[in-house]
């Protein structure tokens, strides 16, 4: 099994669990909604190899911060404005 595939499976499970328990849900915070996370998972895999993951998607960013923290992935999830502050 490839490392990429393993990360894909792990991120898929974590995103679905967080969505199901209502943690920063995509559609609403009253009903758990499972959806296709293909793009989010792909972004998370490549971002997990970086120092920073830049997103303006607040809900996805919050979930990704939790996942990276739990998995001890040293990638900081930030917004575009924070990136500009780092760059200056």
What does it look like?
- The chain has one domain (3-87).
- Helix 3 links the parallel strand 1 and strand 2.
- Strands 1-2 form a two-stranded parallel sheet.
- It has helices at residues 3-20, 38-47, 58-70, 80-87, and strands at 52-54, 76-78.
- By secondary structure, the protein is mainly alpha-helical.
- It is built from four helices and two strands.
Our count of helices gives 4
Summarize the main sheet: 2 strands, parallel
Name the structural class: mainly alpha
The tally of structural domains comes to 1
CA radius of gyration is: 13 Å
Strand order of the largest sheet: 1-2
User: In terms of per-residue confidence, which ranges show pLDDT below 50 for 5 or more consecutive residues?
Assistant: none
How many E strands? 2
Q: In what range is the share of β-strand residues? A: 5-15%
Helix-residue proportion: 55-70%
User: What's the overall average pLDDT, rounded?
Assistant: 87
Q: Could you tell me how far the N terminus lies from the C terminus, measured between alpha carbons in angstroms?
A: 41 Å
Shape: globular
Q: Which series of helices and strands comes N to C?
A: HHEHEH
